[in-house]
Design a protein that fits this description.
Helix content is about 35%, strand content about 20%. The strands form two sheets. Strands 1, 3, 4, 6, 7, 8, 9 and 10 form an eight-stranded mixed β-sheet that branches. It contains eleven helices and ten strands. The chain has one domain. A hairpin with a 2-residue loop joins strand 7 and strand 8. The chain is of the alpha/beta class.
Length: about 260
């Protein structure tokens, strides 16, 4: 059975120094090309307005990134594995994945994006600044916008196999599996016998899990299979793994790190 690992994009992105512009027809899920075009056009337009920083919800320190949005269709592109450079991606070491690992990821990993909808780590995209929580002109809220387009594409990719969800809530709103076993991944820290939710280390630990699953070419059919695979990280990155079935929505896999 196929496995689909869903990742959020990182806020931090590294713009490549050179490269061809993005080719929408060459990205994974080419059926999304028209939807991507509309979001990119709206982003370029909004980024040139006086209220761009407010619309995009960013501060003055990110002025250059917003300015770069204005030429998103002309800017150099590189593999998404190299563009996304936040905590999760650094932990996964994704920028250094070799061709064989990227091939595996191309079949099993999708990054859910406010601009692209969903891309593979091997897809070539430019850097940009846009979050799923943004309301973008006539397109409205991007979570709602992509909810119209992503289910057909990602349900077909999942093909009824296990969906492993490492996304934050705003990105979950854009796509929820409709006919596949679904497991969300949370992270807790254990200190003095007590466990508490963490944020920064949650991204780091999810990145380690994603790399672990891709490199091991894990063949998982159930939530328990996932828990067993994650347990292979105990003693290195983790101190415990727990699986909590849920009557509605995804089951929850909790990765426990030491305090």
């Amino acid at each position: 059975m196929p496995v689909l690992i869903l990742l959020p994009p990182s806020e931090g992105k590294t713009a490549p120094p050179s490269g061809d512009p993005v080719d929408l027809t060459a990205l994974s899920h080419p059926n999304l090309a028209a939807a991507r075009q509309k979001v990119g056009d709206a982003l370029a337009k909004v980024s040139g307005q006086r209220n761009a920083m407010d619309v995009l919800g960013v501060g003055a320190s990110l002025h250059q990134e917003v300015e770069r949005n204005r030429t998103v269709w002309e800017n150099a592109s590189a593999r998404a594995a190299q563009i996304y450079t936040g905590v999760l991606y650094d932990a996964a070491g994704m920028a250094d994945w070799d061709a064989a690992t990227l091939d595996k990821a191309d079949a099993s990993v999708r990054i859910v994006s406010a601009l692209w909808g969903a891309v593979s780590p091997a897809d070539r995209i430019p850097a940009y600044r846009l979050s799923m929580g943004t309301t973008l002109g006539r397109l409205g809220g991007l979570g709602t916008y992509w909810k119209k387009h992503l289910p057909a594409e990602l349900d077909a990719l999942a093909a009824g196999g296990l969906v492993i969800d490492c996304r934050s809530a705003s990105y979950v709103a854009a796509y929820k599996p409709t006919d596949a076993p679904w497991v969300s991944v949370s992270v807790q820290r254990e200190l003095n016998g007590k466990r508490a939710v963490v944020s920064h280390m949650a991204k780091h630990t999810r990145g380690l899990l994603a790399a672990h699953l891709v490199r091991d070419d894990a063949r998982l059919e159930s939530a328990q299979d996932l828990a067993d695979a994650a347990a292979g990280m105990i003693g290195d990155a983790l101190v415990d793994v727990t699986l909590t079935p849920k009557p509605k929505g995804p089951d929850e896999l909790t990765l426990v790190i030491a305090g």
